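Dear support,

We are seeing what looks like truncated structure output for some complexes. This example has two components. We would appreciate it if you could run it in full and send us the complete token output so we can diff it against ours.
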Amino acid sequence: MAHYLILESRDPYDSGDWQNMQQIALDLQSRGNSVTLFLVQNGVIPARKGDRHSGRFAELKQLGITILADDFALKERAIESLAEGVNSANMDRLVELCLQSDTKAMWH
Amino acid sequence: MTGKTLALAIMDSPYESANSTTALRIIHSALSQGHNVMVFAYEGAVNLTMKDQKPHANSVKGTNLEEENHPLTKDWIAALFKLAEEKGVTLDWVNCGLCVDERGAGNWIEGPRRGAPKDFLEAVKNSDGTLVIPTR
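Here is the complete output from our reference environment:
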């Protein structure tokens, strides 16, 4: 079992692949891996509370996927209220996750 | 220092993508935490360390050179080398040689070295974590 760290830099309004990455996260999780979805750059946009896609994060969280959002990217975009299931995190946490044993990092 | 080693590949040219800023923030965080970092700058990313970068005024905003305080990636990266030295860790910045030659980007700041993709392969084998930040 591995830990997959998926860095999502894109948002659903810009990238048709956004949903595909969510499916990859789910598939990895369902195969017994642990998955962290780390939102960076425009990837934090759907994490705004009330965003039409924000409910997706609650579903992922319920299935055991950890969802973190870069605090710097949130501040840049004036996002203060986060969707259910999403927690703010900093770069230090991202580096810790990258260096965690058995972690496979994927950037999208 | 008993830090770990992070291998990072970057490809974006300066001033074109938020990827560059994010990559530099990741490197800053890793070094600050006492980890070694190997950076493989590929394709346009070899321009990040070019010595000839110059700040400029902004006539649209009406700011002069000092007021604009335009950030230069070469200065940010020079600061990362300084941070690594202060922390007693290694920042091994490798500019892809062929990418450098293609772009005439060989005049860079003190710190980076010339290399090839095999350097990244070796770094991945010897690192505790790897992250590749591709262009879109």
